[in-house]
């Protein structure tokens, strides 16, 4: 491609979202003025409340300050939102495309069913990309033989599945989704009779395969093993007489010893980086969680429209796609779709220096993980070994430029595999810069957030691409327990960063655009919302019960400032939701889930991060449950909360809602029986308790009205005791007569 034609026929375009652009800035100005007025009121009431205690006023002031701080940071996401389009037909010919290594991580065959994992693997093998340029690596942190066996079966199935997808241009390349979903692909076929017969045959093969894998996963060997040696194996077909070309498939299970920290997902990814660098050493990496299957065969080509753009290429670290979920229910009461993140925040960051890495659904440039100031020209071998470890093969791979025409790597495959065992041993990283300046960073359990932040503090940037057909689809949380455990892990990981020397507000501004550091700071400080939420859910109510007025009287002009802030911020939230195509219901659920998480996950996550800092606890990563439970799915579909979770989460929710209900009732009684003066002084507090009771209504209903399994039963609250075994998140089983429910508790 000549450079003159590049300008006229770009591979991608970036568009500014102009309409939101103006509204967002007007909102910023008006809201800021209102907030300053609020502070004036609060400060004056602190100094003039002679005959009233000032502690409650002070606490409310703290909560208002914190909320304003969070709000202020959040405005950077609204500063310059953009969208992007790509032109895949303008990509160079296939033989010019760079190779891609696909990394898929799995950790526990019990919470991550092998059949789902295999579907992800197969879908990645069926991507529309030259087969000899695609290699798929499965990291099995569970070290489970069943997973390896299932992978062999998956390889056999892929041998018929991939050609089928190629031949008929199948869109839904994940077999399970293809055979169980709506039959949209069938419309695009040419020779329908032949196609239908072929499809039927493949379906039978798939069902056999699925049955086999399901059977294997029911065996008692199907558990994760925390103490085992390394296994690296390329899956090959012994009866290789047919010439079908499908991507290389490699199974990697790094060595694990209970005495060694294994650094969770980041550790697994770094092991894959090393293994793959000895095999194909592809310059690009597609990262996927085990439940995130490829839903669009063209995502790799779309990503290449950015990576191969000469204007972006040199400092583009990754192309992030949104996470979408196949099991979102109509109501989405748990706000599992993460609408705000993927429809508002990431497009917002994309207009500055690019979105944050989201752990999955990204095409990353390998080089961005090796980014070292140390990689200067005259670096000597010893220095290199101190960074990357002792493997000469690995060091050589750093300097090997990829060859678009591909060398015959298969000749050396066996030899490379031997060497890789050493690279995934427990000791390999000792004394090196892995996890520190090389690879995914270990500093925080939200490795994606922190690695991304550190990358963008260097010269790297990223782009966000959100095509209309979801490129990847995963399974989301469908019950309160999973939601809050996941939320606690995220909060802990984010707070670890916020409270460290890498706090984006301190570490960021000199290294990246100030707005970008505000975005990262907002993300890191999300958990802090637990402070204002706890204050606002208790202090105004306790004060109301004790006859202390905290807010301006209805006749006071400042009352209108409060009203304005409340109404305007909600209108802006509704507008923002509307602009992303969601309904008013989403507003309610987002508010509610924000409150629920704020009261529980954010509090526990922050506490955990502080304890880790003090050395009282160790970091932990309990994989989110991906097993679909029929009863649970039914409740979720009906929009009913499943409250089967630990008391640690339930007790605060129940007590706060009860307190608010009580305050509301008392407020109303007094308003109707006492003189007008009372209405004036306590209107805001009564309204607040009403609003919180309304938002918490499902909790009340769960405590008092419901009779089903998902309700909050008073006795259960007492039986879910603390485990107290170790500092880890432990799982325990609770028998409930009909079936077993898995509960997770924090020790
Ligand atoms: O020790 C571990 C723990 C987890 N995983 C894998 O990590 C992935 C993500 O774990 P999951 O339990 O699905 O976590 P989520 O909370 O759903 O994940 C989100 O948040 C994580 C950070 O907390 C990111 O790493 C993920 O990519 C992002 O999807 C899964 O494939 C796991 O198998 C490992 O490989 N090793
Ligand atoms: Mn997940």
From TrEMBL:
<keyword id="KW-0961">Cell wall biogenesis/degradation</keyword>
<dbReference type="GO" id="GO:0016020">
    <property type="term" value="C:membrane"/>
</dbReference>
<feature type="binding site">
    <location>
        <position position="265"/>
    </location>
    <ligand>
        <name>Mn(2+)</name>
    </ligand>
</feature>
<dbReference type="GO" id="GO:0071555">
    <property type="term" value="P:cell wall organization"/>
</dbReference>
<feature type="transmembrane region" description="Helical">
    <location>
        <begin position="54"/>
        <end position="74"/>
    </location>
</feature>
<feature type="active site">
    <location>
        <position position="448"/>
    </location>
</feature>
<feature type="transmembrane region" description="Helical">
    <location>
        <begin position="26"/>
        <end position="48"/>
    </location>
</feature>
<dbReference type="Pfam" id="PF03552">
    <property type="entry name" value="Cellulose_synt"/>
</dbReference>
<feature type="binding site">
    <location>
        <position position="289"/>
    </location>
    <ligand>
        <name>Mn(2+)</name>
    </ligand>
</feature>
<feature type="binding site">
    <location>
        <position position="112"/>
    </location>
    <ligand>
        <name>UDP-alpha-D-glucose</name>
    </ligand>
</feature>
<keyword id="KW-0472">Membrane</keyword>
<feature type="active site">
    <location>
        <position position="141"/>
    </location>
</feature>
<dbReference type="GO" id="GO:0016760">
    <property type="term" value="F:cellulose synthase (UDP-forming) activity"/>
</dbReference>
<feature type="transmembrane region" description="Helical">
    <location>
        <begin position="520"/>
        <end position="542"/>
    </location>
</feature>
<feature type="transmembrane region" description="Helical">
    <location>
        <begin position="682"/>
        <end position="700"/>
    </location>
</feature>
<feature type="coiled-coil region">
    <location>
        <begin position="392"/>
        <end position="419"/>
    </location>
</feature>
<keyword id="KW-0812">Transmembrane</keyword>
<keyword id="KW-0175">Coiled coil</keyword>
<dbReference type="GO" id="GO:0012505">
    <property type="term" value="C:endomembrane system"/>
</dbReference>
<keyword id="KW-0328">Glycosyltransferase</keyword>
<keyword id="KW-1133">Transmembrane helix</keyword>
<dbReference type="GO" id="GO:0030244">
    <property type="term" value="P:cellulose biosynthetic process"/>
</dbReference>
<dbReference type="InterPro" id="IPR029044">
    <property type="entry name" value="Nucleotide-diphossugar_trans"/>
</dbReference>
<feature type="transmembrane region" description="Helical">
    <location>
        <begin position="554"/>
        <end position="571"/>
    </location>
</feature>
<dbReference type="InterPro" id="IPR005150">
    <property type="entry name" value="Cellulose_synth"/>
</dbReference>
<keyword id="KW-0808">Transferase</keyword>
<feature type="transmembrane region" description="Helical">
    <location>
        <begin position="648"/>
        <end position="670"/>
    </location>
</feature>
<feature type="binding site">
    <location>
        <position position="141"/>
    </location>
    <ligand>
        <name>UDP-alpha-D-glucose</name>
    </ligand>
</feature>
<protein>
    <recommendedName>
        <fullName>Glycosyltransferase 2-like domain-containing protein</fullName>
    </recommendedName>
</protein>
């Amino acid at each position: 491609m000549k450079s003159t034609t590049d300008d006229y026929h770009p591979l991608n375009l970036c568009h500014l979202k102009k309409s939101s652009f103006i509204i967002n800035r007007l909102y910023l100005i008006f809201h800021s003025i209102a907030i300053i007025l609020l502070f004036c009121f609060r400060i004056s009431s602190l100094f003039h409340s002679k005959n009233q205690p000032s502690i409650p006023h002070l606490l409310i002031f703290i909560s208002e300050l914190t909320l304003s701080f969070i709000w202020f940071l959040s405005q950077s996401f609204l500063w310059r939102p953009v969208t992007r389009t790509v032109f895949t037909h303008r990509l160079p010919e296939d033989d010019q495309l760079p190779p891609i290594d696909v990394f898929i991580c799995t950790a526990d065959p019990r919470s991550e069913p092998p059949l789902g994992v295999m579907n992800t693997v197969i879908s990645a093998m069926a991507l529309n990309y030259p087969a000899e340029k695609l290699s798929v690596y499965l990291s099995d942190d569970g070290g489970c033989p069943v997973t390896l066996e299932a992978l062999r079966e998956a390889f056999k199935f892929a041998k018929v599945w991939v050609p089928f997808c190629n031949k008929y241009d199948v869109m839904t390349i994940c077999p399970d989704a293809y055979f169980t979903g709506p039959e949209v692909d069938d419309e695009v076929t040419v020779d329908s009779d032949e196609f239908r017969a072929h499809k039927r045959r493949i379906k039978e093969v798939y069902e056999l395969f699925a049955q086999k894998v399901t059977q294997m996963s029911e065996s008692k060997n199907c558990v994760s093993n925390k103490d085992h040696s390394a296994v690296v194996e390329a899956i090959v077909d012994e009866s290789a007489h047919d010439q079908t070309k499908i991507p290389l498939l490699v199974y990697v299970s790094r060595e694990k010893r209970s005495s060694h920290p294994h650094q969770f997902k980041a550790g697994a990814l770094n092991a894959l980086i090393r293994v793959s660098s000895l095999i194909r050493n592809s310059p690009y990496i597609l990262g996927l969680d085990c439940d995130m299957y490829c839903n669009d065969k063209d995502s790799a080509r779309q990503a290449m429209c950015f990576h191969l753009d000469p204007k972006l290429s040199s400092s583009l670290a990754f192309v992030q796609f949104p996470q979408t979920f196949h099991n979102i229910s109509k109501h989405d009461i748990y706000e599992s779709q993460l609408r705000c993140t993927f429809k508002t925040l990431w497009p917002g960051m994309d207009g500055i220096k690019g979105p944050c890495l989201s752990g999955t659904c990204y095409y990353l440039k390998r080089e961005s993980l090796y980014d070292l100031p140390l990689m200067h020209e005259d670096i000597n071998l010893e220095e290199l070994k101190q960074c990357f470890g002792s493997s000469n093969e690995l060091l050589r791979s750093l300097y090997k430029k990829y060859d678009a025409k591909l060398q015959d790597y298969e000749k050396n495959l066996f030899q490379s595999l031997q060497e890789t065992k050493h690279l995934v041993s427990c000791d390999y990283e000792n004394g090196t810069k892995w996890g520190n300046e090389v690879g995914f960073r270990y500093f925080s359990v939200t490795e994606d957030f922190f690695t991304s932040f550190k990358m963008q503090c260097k010269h790297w940037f990223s782009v966000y691409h959100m095509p209309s057909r979801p490129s990847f689809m995963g399974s989301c949380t469908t019950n309160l327990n999973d939601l809050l455990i996941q939320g606690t892990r995220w909060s802990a990981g984010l707070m670890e960063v916020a409270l460290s020397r890498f706090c984006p507000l301190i570490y960021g501004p000199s290294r990246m655009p100030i707005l970008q550091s505000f975005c990262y700071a907002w993300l890191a400080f999300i958990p802090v919302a637990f402070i204002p939420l706890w204050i606002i859910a208790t202090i105004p109510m306790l004060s109301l019960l004790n006859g202390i007025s905290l807010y301006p009287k209805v006749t006071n002009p400042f009352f209108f400032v409060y009203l304005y802030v409340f109404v305007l911020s909600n209108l802006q939230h509704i507008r923002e939701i509307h602009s992303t195509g969601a309904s008013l219901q989403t507003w309610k659920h987002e508010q509610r889930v924000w409150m629920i998480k704020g009261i529980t996950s954010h509090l526990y996550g922050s506490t955990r991060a502080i304890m880790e800092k003090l050395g009282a606890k160790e970091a932990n990563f309990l994989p989110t449950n991906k097993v679909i439970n029929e009863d649970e799915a039914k409740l979720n579909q009906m929009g009913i909360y499943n409250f089967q979770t630990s008391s640690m989460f339930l007790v605060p929710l129940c007590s706060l809602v009860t307190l608010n209900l009580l305050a509301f009732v008392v407020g109303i009684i007094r308003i109707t029986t006492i003189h007008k003066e009372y209405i004036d002084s306590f209107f805001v507090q009564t309204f607040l308790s009403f609003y919180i009771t309304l938002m918490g209504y499902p909790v009340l209903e769960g405590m008092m009205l419901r009779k089903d399994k998902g309700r909050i039963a008073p006795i259960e609250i007492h039986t879910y005791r603390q485990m107290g075994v170790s500092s880890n998140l432990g799982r325990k089983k609770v028998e409930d007569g009909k079936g077993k429910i898995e509960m997770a508790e924090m020790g």
